[in-house]
Amino acid sequence: xxxxxxxxxxLVQPGGSLRLSCAASTSxxxxxVMGWYRQAPGKQRELVAxxxxxxxxxxxxxxxxxxxxxxxxxxNTVYLQMNSLKPEDTAVYYCGAERRFGPSGSYYYWGQGTxxxxxx
Length: 120
Hints:
Helix content: under 10%
Number of strands: 11
Strand content: over 45%
Distance between the termini: 40 Å
């Protein structure tokens, strides 16, 4: 089992910054992909950013140049630095982890989510 705990959400003005943290219960080297997703009311959940166990990065087009995903392997923690925040970034942000077994097996784990609200 992989347990994920998010923190760092809150209320921020447009143009401001927040740093989200996702602490995993096991070494992130044992997790193939960790990612940040977000879901606003009435909208589908979307991938914001992801990082693989070997450090490959992926970002949604809407956040490129503004958000940065990073990791601290000693703390088993993944971060999402969010700069130049916009009202459309408002959502519940979830940390997700995919653990793969063999060529076709995998498990996916989710944190409880943290609210990010961007408003003046």
